[in-house]
């Protein structure tokens, strides 16, 4: 006769597929809202009367809350229950989406975006932690992370397509209101599919560490966002960055002495996790900036309207889907390190192709080839980076591992946009007085993408030289579970 525990395990295994679908749909929604407003910003400005500075905070408020609160909510998911924190985050995100969709004043939209970011910071790490625990086996976890990472990349680019389509055909308000059925479905379905899980022992939340860590992340993201707007010489931009460094140093000092820290410093001592997060930082900086700059290029140099600019990203989505399909197979057959090096180098080739676009090349002859190659590399990279960054995570720290990875992605994206967009702008401005404006804009675009390619090349070198001797996913997992093995420590 089957025991109760065996029956319960069998039921959970049988529901893992539907649970993964629900969690990935929510992740798609969360990542989509990273940049879904980009194409719709002019329409929002006209309808609600935004100032130029205020309009930037429609984007920045989401990044600030999402990037700043990830570490805190990721650890809370481990302590309070991943399913509980996930459902709370989804409910908060859905309510905030309704506020954004019905906003009549600029402050209402910005407030809604901030609350959206907070909800995403709760739901994102908890969802990834649930996937890590639902799929404990090496091969099945690799495939699940492959789907997850691909969906995340797809959401990042599909946001531009959906935003352009909805803004051009209906209203910008629908880019928020379409979140409501997804959130409602997740709230209804997930409790029936996924059991609650939390850290195996009772641990108190490290309040000083939470305050310092959250403060450091919020200051860092805010400073980077302001730097992108005002430049590196402005004190209102540099001040938050200096504060972030001070708070980060204090955070490390507190965590080293706390019995039950928010983020044990030993967490990143394993080479796979440390190197994977470092490579993710470089990857996010390059790819976030590329997506932003390419959208600007399509609308300013090629003269596309929002709907056409969004539709122009459809091939990019197709390339990510292809890369996602290949990624888990590459990781299983080649190993994590070779798969990541190859995927990074493919993205480098794509960025260099895009950087060579001339003002009169057009879309099919100039933009499309580089876009397809870059998207293939991106689709290959994201799942493999997720596998490496969550190597060896356990029941105790799955939420923390997910939060660290998500924080690195957000900070990397903010750094990339702040630095590379400023670099492109300065290059364009320097040439504008003595050259055709379209040619000057293209030169700035090309310079920034070349620097992005250099960042990915550094990432490939980092992975090839420092990821360690473990090639296969199962070897990486064993390394993460064997603290005594000095081969796998930094």
Number of strands: 0
Structural class designation? mainly alpha
Q: Can you write the helix and strand succession as a string?
A: HHHHHHHHHHHHHHHHHHH
Largest sheet: none
How many alpha or pi helices? 19
Q: Which runs of at least 5 residues are low in confidence (pLDDT < 50)?
A: 1-11, 475-490
Short structural summary:
Helices cover 80% and strands 0% of the residues. The chain has 490 residues and is an all-alpha fold. The model is unreliable at 1-11 and 475-490 (pLDDT under 50).
Describe the model:
The protein has 490 residues and is mostly helical. 80% of the residues lie in helices and 0% in strands. It has helices at residues 4-14, 16-35, 41-48, 52-80, 82-101, 106-134, 138-169, 174-177, 179-193, 207-230, 235-257, 271-300, 306-311, 314-334, 336-355, 362-389, 398-432, 437-466, 473-480. Helix 4 runs antiparallel to helix 5 and helix 6 (106-134) packs across helix 17. The termini are far apart.
